[in-house]
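Researcher: I need the complex structure. Ligand is NDP. Inputs:
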Amino acid sequence: MVFSSANSCCSSSFSTSSIKRQEGRLLRKTNVGLAPCAHFFAGPRAFPLKCSNGHLLPMENASGDSSPVEVPIKQYNLSPDQNMTTVSITVVGASGDLAKKKIFPALFALYYEDFLPEHFTVFGYARSELTNEELRNMISKTLTCRIDKRENCSDKMEQFLQRCFYCSGQYDLEEDFKKLDEKLKQKETGRFPNRLFYLSIPSNIFVDVVRCASHCASSPIGWTRVIVEKPFGRDSESSRELTASLKQYLAEDQIFRIDHYLGKELVENLSVLRFSNLVFEPLWSRQYIRNVQLIFSEDFGTEGRGGYFDSYGIIRDIMQNHLLQILALFAMETPVSLDAEDIRNEKVKVLRSMRALEVDDVVIGQYKGHSKGGKSYPSYTDDPTVPSNSITPTFAAAAMFIDNARWDGVPFLVKAGKALHYKGAEIRVQFRHVPGNLYRRNFGTDLDKNTNELVIRVQPNEAIYLKINNKVPGLGMRLDRSNLNLLYAAKYQSEIPDAYERLLLDAIAGERRLFIRSDELDAAWALFTPLLRELEEKHIAPELYPYGSRGPVGAHYLAAKHNVRKYTKAKNTLILQKMEKNW
Ligand SMILES: NC(=O)C1=CN([C@@H]2O[C@H](COP(=O)(O)OP(=O)(O)OC[C@H]3O[C@@H](n4cnc5c(N)ncnc54)[C@H](OP(=O)(O)O)[C@@H]3O)[C@@H](O)[C@H]2O)C=CC1
Ligand SMILES: O=C1O[C@H](COP(=O)(O)O)[C@@H](O)[C@H](O)[C@H]1O
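Model: Output:
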């Protein structure tokens, strides 16, 4: 029984909301399949928490489970109103880069927008010795106000910081988590406590933390959820081991494996675009789509994260998770509903229908030093935390195939690289040519040169545009390629929330749709593990490319092999880019 040791540290605690106490034993009860966006009740005012699928669900108990709570409420000295819930959010690894850069700012943004429940507390936990004041000081440097709503921002910031506390401790000492538990309890007094732990720490200490938190700091009566950051292992085997170890202490529905690309606005919009517009879904198949590209490009190297990066490489860092997740969302069949399990079921089917990658399907590269305009750029191996003979790829392009009826034969060209010529992430869909094209005289013999292309620009300058052929106004018949363009900055006034905001909100609401289920993870690793093993066992060296370039030449051959073309920019794209620069 996986939870048999759950109470070993603190007599009053048990590790999951989905456990019922029966005849002195802890029994697990599944709540997978529910769409549990919780309502938080704050004093007399009902605070409906909207999660990202937009559902406002029927009233639930505070454990995120629709059955009655069968716990000895009285012994926790709770307010007579059981709905007086509180959420304690503990950021484990609070002194680290991700916590400072993303997690605390996202929590503040949620608070600023009134998305957090009225009663909540944020705890930072790490080994560094910090006081509450020092933590607040550290956090305050990275909090920002929404550009479109600066009003009262500094007051809100101060109020938020007053809800932030710190507890220092080791990651593998139950005693230290007991200390944390005491501090959490002090803040939770009189309220129904729910607890969220965000593991913003290196993956080799995930299991220690989960063991200690589960034994000593899980919510005594409410839900306990754990957000786990990537990497979820290095290959199929280590990922399964990690999952098995976590499941010694947590039920699957307590584990929120985060992939922050799933929280990005345009990735979230993919399903809306496809399933709520009649013009796209009928075209979404091998019959009309020639190829799909999923591109991630950064215009900087591994600066500061070379140590981590070198033992993972770009395939594990970006492709196996961020790009593959987008691909699965892009290619899945219509889910039965927007519920997490329905969507994740469809994604798993896509992943399981894909062909595992072989070395011939892939081009790998590594950036080398380069001088341009009097400035010199380092090579990957110039990073002092990277071994000088490292052959870890910083670039990879792969042709992937989904062997199902919808996508048979359509190449999905997946490309990710650091230190390239631009920063951006996008999905490019190239359509087939119009059969029997009346205008072939205008296009010449290569009909594939002038086909429609749909571009979903995930970042920066979020946009969706469709390249169409159009008649140039005037007498005569001249065609050109133009864009139907939905540029977010021009259309929508409000600032786009950071991905971590959406994901944190969903984890608090118990919405699992944008988190990775263990079978999805398994299926994703199965596609990459044989390739990674072969690259490493055979010491296959990456092709070098200059820092700031378009990547290795081999990637262009791979694209050409699959008839993936780079179109010259349509005229109005250039105009729009100029306009964007001025915004
Ligand atoms: N940074 C980023 O942009 C991204 C990070 N991630 C993932 O998020 C997690 C956190 O990343 P990040 O904040 O960059 O990590 P850090 O290296 O900054 O580590 C976070 C904290 O963990 C503690 N720590 C660091 N190394 C060790 C160690 N060897 N043993 C024990 N404790 C250690 C430190 O706290 P202290 O010493 O005070 O205990 C540190 O402040 C990682 O899993 C990472 O892969 C994912 C996507 C992007
Ligand atoms: O997960 C990661 O993502 C970042 C890029 O995230 P973005 O939201 O800024 O696009 C990447 O730099 C990092 O290497 C990787 O671990």
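Model: Summary of the prediction. The first helix runs from residue 97 to 112.
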